[in-house]
Design a protein that fits this description.
Radius of gyration: 27 Å
Strand order of the largest sheet: 1-2
Order of helices and strands: HHHHHHHHHHHHEEHHHHHHHHHH
Number of helices: 22
Helix content: 55-70%
Largest sheet: 2 strands, antiparallel
Strand content: under 5%
Length: 525
Amino acid sequence: MFARFLTHRNVYLLGLAGFLFGLAMSEFVISVSQFLLAANWLVSRNFKAKWERIKTNPAVWLIWFFYLLHIIGMTHTLYFDLGADELRIKLPFLLIPLFVVSEKRFSKLEMKGLLSVFVLAVILSSGFGIAHHFQHRMDIGYDARSSSLFISHIRLSLMIDLATLWLLSALLLGNEKKWVKIFSSILVLYLAFYLIQMQMLTGLVILPLALSFAFGFAQSESIVTSKIKLIVALFGAVFLISSSFYCYQIARPFIDFKEHFRYDLEVNTVNGNQYLHQLDNLMQENGNQVWIYISDPETRAEWNKRSKLDFDGVGNTGESLRATLYRYLTSKGARKDSVGMQTLTAEDILAIESGEANIRFVNHSSIEKRIYQTIWELNNYQYQAGSYEGHSVAQRIEFWKVGWQAFKIAPIFGNGTGDVRAMMSEQYAKSNSILSKESQLKPHNQFITTAVALGVMGLFSLIVCFVFAFKYSIREPVKLAFLVIILLSFISEDTLDTQVGATFFAGFYALFCCQPKSSELQEEA
């Protein structure tokens, strides 16, 4: 019986299922699955038929050409070892399209089975994450995003978006049984809850955009009815209005903020000590300016009476305790003096020691906090208020600016595969960046990263892959959704420069765009 099951087709499907399962669960499983697929491809032979399918499939040649440019980029790289690692990471660009185009098209049942395995892996990965979250959420310095145990929380959020959209497609467009639709609805709600609970802002921003684009722009009335398009359009409008209003309410203290003038401020504390007013530093908490009404002697004395942590040291999470304390007092509307210190409760002291800088979010971990933090970082960047260190949004803006300068060094053919980090380091030094060496990273924008490495030639090649893929997928919402998810992720991430990110893109690009046109089954060897 086992021998009857062990056909080349079944081994191929098993390899792809393992590949899709590994995306959210294990890089090791991804590697083993690719070895299995490669061995099956060689053993199945029938190379003439495979070549016929390969040579007539433009999607395969486009992604292979993009990979070829990386190989060409090795001819002028200064860091061959880093370039070789880039080629290794992007090897799925060669392999997965090859395996998929060589076989017959998937039946609807086979495609449903493969995507179901992918959704199962996403559910399991997020399930372990949510369990870890509720176990550790009260720990000092805990970050909800650290509960993505198997892969990066950003990559997982992209996979959750794709899984959610496939489930929604089954709900809206499929002829599934009632219990399947109920179960799918529960899974969609669970995945949405996970994104919110784990503060995955990237996934939360991309999901409604991908949903609106995929279902709103699909061009087949037989697949997406006018009624569904109307529902999606209304959902998009409601979501845009409500989310904009929600973000506006969070940002309102920053919008309504008015600068202070020195003649408006008191000079001395009630104890006669002189206040320090840094009026040029416009950092804010809850609409109040942080670096005014400061008396270090008074706050130092009062703090050291009530805490074992030194006022001039760091908190339990490694941040400057003085800065955290002053931000926290400001969030309460209190001054940074002995009187302000009297407003702090024992719970406040514990929160400050644990790195919490705003009373609004004590024992309150939510997406609201993540949105507030993002606005706070952008506000500080605008006013050059404080360091960008450890603040992902502000750092990314700095990465992009430096990346643009690195691109201009060799705009046509790029600086070479593997040279991105070196070129970035050179530009950080030239610009006298305030970021520490540890924080001077790659662009965190796939378009800029590709342009720095391969120039406009590489960037154009990447864009052409997507243009063709959109044309190929215009009638199928899930395929459109995948492309939108990947493209939007490129704005804030070097998606293709990580093993999981490159494999995620290559795998679904192959599944959705590289299947052969013919559905005839070649003879099994």
